[in-house]
Amino acid sequence: GGGQRAAVGLVGTLHQMKEDHLLDTLLYIGGVSGSTWSMASLYSDPQWSSKMDEAVSRLLGPEVGLDQALQWLGERAQEENFSLTDVWGVLTSAGLMKQLDLRNLSHDAVGEATNPYPIYCAVEKRCFSHGPLEGQWFELTPHEAGFTELGLFVHTSLLDSKFQRGDLLEKKPAMDMVRLQGVLGCALAHEDIIKGFIPPWLNVPGLIDSAAEPYLHVYNALSNLIFLIRSIVKDPAALTDLDQLQQDLEAKVSCDQSELLNSKSQEERRSLFQQWNLELLEVAQNWSQNLENTTFKSHASFLTQQILPLVIKWEWGTTSNFLYQYQDSSVPACLHSAEIFHLIDAGMLINVAYPSFLGDKRDIDLIIAQEYSAGNMFETLTLARDYADEVMKPFPEIDETILKDRDFPKDCYVFEGKGKEPTIVYMPLFNRRNCKDEEDFKAKREEFSTFQLPFSQDKIQSLLEIAKANIRNNREALLAEMRKAALRRQSKRI
C-alpha cells in the first residue's frame, strides 16, 4: 500500500513484467490500500494483461467530471450503510484513478483466466482495535469475501446483504468497484493515521487525548477531501475557492489554544473541542453559502450537505455482517453480536498482502513483494513474520542484520523458504540503485509521500519509470527464484 504512489508503482511494475515476459508467470496479485485502486482499474478490462499500455494511459487521463462523481454519490446517499467510505471512494476513483467503474467484483469471476487472480485485502475495524487477530484480516476475491484466519466466507455478490445465524434474510445489491476502492484505501479511517496530522501547538504531551480526536477527525477529513476534490475540478475560479476554504480551515486550526487547554479539566477540554468542531464545520458551511452563484456553488452545497454529517458521525466501511449470530465458536464476540462491521484499509495492520498468501489454502512457493510503503523499510516484512508466528503459519527466516539497511536499502532481497515456507523476493521502490545516498532516498520518499495533492503527469511518468527499472534491473534474479520455485513445486509432487 501507499496511496497514489502504490497505485502508480504497481502499474509500472506489471508493465515491465509484461515487457520482460514475466507477467504470465503470476498466479495471483494481492493488494492493500493504494495498490488495490490500480488493481480495480486494471481488471475493468478483461484483457488487461495483454494491454498494459492502455492501463498506463488511464493513469494519465482524461479525468472524470465532478458532475459524474456527484451523481454517483447522490444515488449512493439514498442507500443503507452510506458512510465516509463512499465519499472517499468516489473522489479517489474520479480524481486519482480517473474512472468510475460501476461493475461489482463478482463480475470478474467469469473474466479472462489468463490474468492473475486478484485478491483485495482489508481489515475489520472493531476487531482490529479490540478483538483477536483471527477476526482482523479480511480478503475479497471475485468468488468469495471473508475472514482469512477464521476460514469463514460469503459469496462476494452477497457481501453487504443481511444475514442472521447464517441465513440470508435480505439480498442487497453488491457493492460496486467505486465503493470497494473506498473500503480498501481509507487509511484516514483509523485514529493512528489522524494523529500523524496534528497542529504543532496541539502536538504536546497532555493535550492529545480522547477529547481531541473528534477535532482532528473533522480537520483532517475536510483537508484531505479538499485535496481530492481539487483533482477533479478544473475551473480556475473553483480552484481558487477551494484554496480559500483550505486557508480558512488552517487559520482556524493554527490558532494556539494550548494555554487555555492547560487550564481546563478533562471534561472542560472535551466541551472546548466540541465547540471548535462546530466552528470548523461552520467555516465549511459559510464558505459554501458565500460562493458566487455558479455551477460549482451547487456542487459545493451538495457536498457540504452530504459530507459534514458523515464527518461528525465518523463512520467508515459500514457493511452488513454475514456472521451476525452465526453459530460457530470460532467467531469472535466482536463479530458475533453486531449486525454490521466496518471494513477499512488493511495497511493499518500490514501494508503488504502477506496474510492472504500464507499457509495451506493457496500453498504459495514464491512471493514477489513490491514495497511501496511509506513506513520503515522491512517493517511490513517483520510484521508479517510476527503475524505468521501468531497464527502458526510458515514464514521464511529474516536475517536481523538486514535491518541496518532500512535507511538506504538495496533494490532486491531474497528470503529463502524451507519446507512449507514461501520464498520472498522483497523489492523496495526507492533504493540504492535509484537514489544517490541516504539523503536522496529520504528526499524521494518525501517527494512521493502518501498524503499530498494528486501527482502531476510528470510525477506519474517518473514513478512509472522507477518501478519499471526495478523489475528490469532484477529480471535475472526474479527468473532464478521462479526456476527454484518450479523445482520445489515439482519435488512436492514426486
Automatic annotation (TrEMBL):
InterPro entries xrefs: Acyl_Trfase/lysoPLipase (IPR016035), LysoPLipase_cat_dom (IPR002642)
GO function terms (MF aspect): calcium ion binding; calcium-dependent phospholipase A2 activity; calcium-dependent phospholipid binding
Top-level taxon of origin: Eukaryota
Transmembrane segments: none
Domain PLA2c: start-end pairs: 1-494
Annotated SUPFAM superfamilies: FabD/lysophospholipase-like
GO biological process: glycerophospholipid catabolic process
Entry GO terms, CC: cytosol; nuclear envelope; nucleoplasm
A Pfam cross-reference name: PLA2_B
Keyword Lipid metabolism: yes
Alphabetic keyword roster: Hydrolase, Lipid degradation, Lipid metabolism
Protein name as it appears in the record: Phospholipase A2, group IVC (Cytosolic, calcium-independent)
The organism of origin for this protein: Nothobranchius rachovii (bluefin notho)
